């Protein structure tokens, strides 16, 4: 499986604080790779570096061979990013938002319309797309944003806590959407502190704590390695053993 | 697709919300109503400018002669019954706030060589300009009676040509500006100049404050909703995002300023126009045409080049405010913190604005001048006066200094937008911010 993302010895410092310490991992094509760890572990910093919002202090990340250090503009053509608890422009309608975002990715109107159609089908919000986003529930906004994140068919979709704050039904729907899209060949880098959710959707996981990637592998492998029932137990034992 | 225009369209759409449009509509309506009210009030005051309430308590041929001569001079007399108790209230019923009473013994005093007594009663209901206009007409009537009496006394002494005694001097008023001179009262020139130039600082003040708040709010809003993070990971340059925001805020503030300008013009126009027409007939007046000619003669009218320079200073001021507010908005903790974040800009605009309204900044002591000239916005407030009074050194310094400030603030804004600091720097709790950014 060719690698869509290669993270190589990535470090990110904020002043004297080292938020990410020599993190390395890969994400293959059509793979859902999840970074799991508690709040403040370094997940979001890693994700922000890969999504070109932050520059690494050292190391690099290559998306489809394009470096976030040398060519961040090139990387942005290959990725989409959904921040944790992100909102959308409340004064816009759902369809207006999709049109606006598609205009930033598409080269022409035909491509834009195709993207908007794909997003409309993915989010399945139907007629509600004509309503203002300010009238949407949290789950509807998340679906809209997720459909926005995948409408340009990126090589790598980066999702930070994709289901945080959602009820069970909405969270399940979002997870199914991610799985379906991965089956279609799209790669995902997902972060979450909800390890049970990650076990459900991810192909491989990376356990990160205090900026250090402690473990990396398939959930089943890790569970077997630590003789654990679930990823939460894997995490607990990996952290204790670190 | 042109990303900048896509972003600009979105920014402009963001601004066209009921919350933003409603205040503009309210302002226009308020100014229109104020203008109408002031217009009708001044019109009625002007109508009353020659109307005088008189009470003849002497009822003699001499007092009646006086009243007849006042009528002949163009005064419209409203007679209040002699001996009435509430004379001022009676005058008020006629729409007049003052009354001139010819007291008992008026004729007797004249005949016995004493100064006859007149009483002027004014009913004070407010301190407004319009309220004062009625009283001045009554005062003019009293002065007119004095003149009539002087003429009468001189005639009795055999002096018939009283003009020279009434006006022993001929005062010619000249106003000098730089090396130019015009025969016009400096008071009249100042009054008209002030009524015209008062708009400039008000508009600058409005534009800078509105533009700063709009930009800072837009940035803080996007940061809070994390839509900025989303935008900055799309194939759009960060500078496009930055300049689209600044351009939209600039357009928005210019539109709002235009509304303010139209509203203020209508309001001030009704006020100043009626004050001139409200002057008593015997007050020496300078007509609009004379003042206009005097303005040109004195070089007080700005030429196109001077307008362009003022325009450059105004535009530079807006851009500086936009660049600084972009940085402050990016550093605001949240949307609530925007007001606090833009406070430094508000102070930097308010201080030179108020001082330039009340005094000549170039005449202040050196430390005060240095303090004010360090604020880049000051130079825009003083530009018109410097232009008129040919302080070319100050103008040149102002333009160069402002362009320098603009270059520095734009450079810093671009640096902030191009760096990690956009997501890690906050105005308060920097240590916490770094810790937060770590996750």
Structure description:
The complex is a heterodimer of chains A (242) and B (439). Chain A is α/β, with parallel strands linked by helices. Chain A has two domains: 164 residues, Rossmann fold; 67 residues, no CATH class. Chain A is built from nine helices and ten strands. In chain A, the strands form two sheets. A six-stranded mixed beta sheet of chain A has the order 6-7-8-3-9-10, with helices on both faces. In chain A, strands 2-1-4-5 form a four-stranded antiparallel beta sheet. In chain A, helix 3 packs across helix 4, helix 4 crosses helix 5 and helix 5 packs parallel to helix 6. With 439 residues, chain B is mainly alpha-helical. Chain B folds into two domains: 112 residues, 3-Layer(aba) Sandwich (abc type-2 transporter like fold); 256 residues, no CATH class. Chain B contains 20 helices and six strands. In chain B, the strands form two sheets. In chain B, strands 2-1-3-4 form a four-stranded mixed beta sheet, sandwiched between helices. A two-stranded antiparallel sheet of chain B has the order 5-6. In chain B, a hairpin with a 2-residue loop joins strand 5 and strand 6. The C terminus of chain B is likely disordered. The chains are: A alpha/beta (242), B mainly alpha (439). Chain B: Keywords: Cell membrane, Membrane, Transmembrane, Transmembrane helix. Chain B: InterPro entries: ABC-2_transporter_component (IPR051449), ABC2_TM (IPR013525). Chain B: It is a multi-pass membrane protein.
Produce a short descriptive summary.
The complex is a heterodimer of chains A (242) and B (439). In chain A, 39% of the residues lie in helices and 26% in strands. Chain A is α/β, with parallel strands linked by helices and 242 residues long.
């Amino acid at each position: 499986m060719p690698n869509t993302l290669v993270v190589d010895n990535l470090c990110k410092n904020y002043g004297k604080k080292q938020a990410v310490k020599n993190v390395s991992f890969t994400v293959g094509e059509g793979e859902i790779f999840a970074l799991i760890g508690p709040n403040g572990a370094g997940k979001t910093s890693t994700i922000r570096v890969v999504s070109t919002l932050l520059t690494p202090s050292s190391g690099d990340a290559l998306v489809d061979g394009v470096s976030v250090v040398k060519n961040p503009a090139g990387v942005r053509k290959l990725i989409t990013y959904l921040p944790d608890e992100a909102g959308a422009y409340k004064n816009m309608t759902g369809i207006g938002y999709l049109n606006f975002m598609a205009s930033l990715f598409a080269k022409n109107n035909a491509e834009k319309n195709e993207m908007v159609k794909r997003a409309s089908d993915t989010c399945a919000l139907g007629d509600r797309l004509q309503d203002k986003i300010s009238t949407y529930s949290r789950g509807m906004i998340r679906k809209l944003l997720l459909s926005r994140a995948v409408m340009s068919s990126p090589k790598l979709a980066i999702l930070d806590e994709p289901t945080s704050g959602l009820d069970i039904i909405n969270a399940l729907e979002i997870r199914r959407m991610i799985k379906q899209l991965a089956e279609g060949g799209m790669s995902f880098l997902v972060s979450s502190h909800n390890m049970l959710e990650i076990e459900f959707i991810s192909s491989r996981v990376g356990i990160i704590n205090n900026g250090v990637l402690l473990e990396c592998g398939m959930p089943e492998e890790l569970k077997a390695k630590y003789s654990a029932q679930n990823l939460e137990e894997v995490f607990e034992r990996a952290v204790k053993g670190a | 697709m042109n990303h900048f225009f896509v972003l600009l369209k979105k920014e402009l759409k963001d601004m066209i919300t009921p919350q933003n449009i409603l205040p503009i509509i309210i302002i226009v309506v308020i100014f229109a109503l104020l203008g109408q009210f002031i217009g009708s009030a001044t019109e009625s005051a002007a109508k009353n400018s020659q109307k005088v309430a008189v009470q003849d308590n002497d009822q003699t041929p001499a007092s009646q002669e006086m009243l007849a001569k006042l009528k002949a001079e163009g005064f419209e007399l409203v007679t209040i019954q002699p001996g009435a108790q509430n004379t001022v209230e009676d005058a008020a019923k006629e729409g007049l706030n003052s009354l001139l009473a010819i007291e008992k013994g008026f004729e007797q005093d004249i005949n016995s060589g004493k100064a006859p007594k007149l009483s002027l009663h004014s009913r004070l209901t407010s301190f407004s300009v319009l309220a004062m206009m009625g009283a001045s007409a009554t005062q003019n009537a009293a002065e007119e009676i004095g003149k009539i009496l002087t003429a009468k006394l001189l005639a009795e002494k055999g002096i018939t040509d009283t003009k020279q005694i009434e006006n022993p001097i001929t005062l010619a008023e000249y106003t000098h500006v730089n090396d130019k001179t015009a025969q016009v009262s400096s008071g009249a020139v100042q009054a008209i100049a002030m009524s015209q130039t008062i708009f400039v600082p008000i508009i600058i003040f409005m534009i800078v404050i509105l533009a700063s708040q709009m930009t800072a709010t837009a940035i803080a809003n996007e940061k809070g909703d994390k839509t900025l993070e989303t935008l900055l990971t799309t194939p759009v340059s960060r500078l496009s995002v930055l300049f689209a925001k600044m351009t939209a805020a600039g357009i928005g503030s210019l539109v709002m300023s235009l509304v303010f300008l139209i509203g203020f013009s209508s309001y001030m126009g009704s006020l100043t126009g009626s004050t001139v027409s409200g002057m008593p007939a015997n007050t020496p007046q300078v007509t609009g045409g004379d003042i206009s000619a005097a303005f040109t003669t004195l070089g007080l009218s700005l030429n196109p080049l001077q307008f362009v320079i003022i325009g450059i200073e105004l535009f530079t001021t807006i851009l500086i405010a936009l660049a600084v507010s972009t940085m402050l908005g990016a550093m605001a903790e949240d949307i609530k913190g925007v007001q606090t974040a833009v406070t430094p800009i508000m102070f930097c605009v308010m201080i030179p604005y108020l001082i330039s309204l009340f005094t000549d900044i170039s005449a202040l002591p050196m430390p005060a001048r240095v303090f004010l000239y360090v604020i880049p916005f000051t130079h825009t407030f003083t530009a018109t006066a410097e232009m008129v009074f040919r302080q070319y050194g100050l103008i040149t310094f102002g333009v160069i200094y402002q362009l320098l400030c603009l270059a520095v603030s734009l450079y810093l804004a671009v640096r902030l937008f191009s760096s990690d600091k956009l997501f890690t720097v906050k105005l308060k709790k920097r240590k916490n911010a770094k810790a937060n950014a770590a996750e």
